[in-house]
Predict the structure.
Amino acid sequence: MHAAERERRIAEALSATGFVSYRELERLLDASPATIRRDLTRLEEEGRIVRVHGGAKLPQAGEPSLRLGGTPFDQSITQNLAAKRAIGRAAAALVVPGEGIMIDGGTTTLQMCPHLAGLGCQVLTNSLHIVNALLSQDSTRILVPSGTLFREQNIILAAAGEESMPRFHAPKLFMGAAALGPQGAMQADVVLVAAERRLIDRAEEVILLIDSSKFRSQSGTIVCALDEIDTIVTDALPADMAPVLAAAGVRVVLAG
């Protein structure tokens, strides 16, 4: 079992209660104690977990490791901005006036906001950047979950196992990813994965917004497999990914 798959299983185990024991990890990962220790050490150094007696837990508010991995929002917002704006416009065109939607925090999903004006939608988002972008839209109703504010991305995330979402039904979830490959969509942080899984479980349709630089295979925690994604909105599609996405039944929308 490769490292990315082991990280995915660790994230899934943690998402249930916020804690996983070494004994449970040995059963889930079919790996040696030394390999598991190396995995946990790496995840702790990246701020994704806290190692405790008997196992590991997700970091809580006030703990030194309460930070997210990946590129900080202020840096990411300037990367491939023209493509992200085109993707945001194309994604907003998929929204039906008056419907409820979920928008996960991210620099690409943020670009949807100007194009939602006048649609009379109800938006559930964990991103304060998105909240701020929607505040001037009188017809847009905004809902936010409870949880801890992570300043690197300016998003609100709850501890694993904590029910933080309002009672809200949304036909569509718009979300981003750090990378997308044949194995699925990936994020750089296990805390993000747990939060996004809760959103995916509430959505009828998962719409992934990624610019073409995100089509790559890399080590990371898998958020969802390709067959869990209904639509991908992107600026360009690599030739080798077209048959892979078609085989998984994923619709592709190219932003003009």
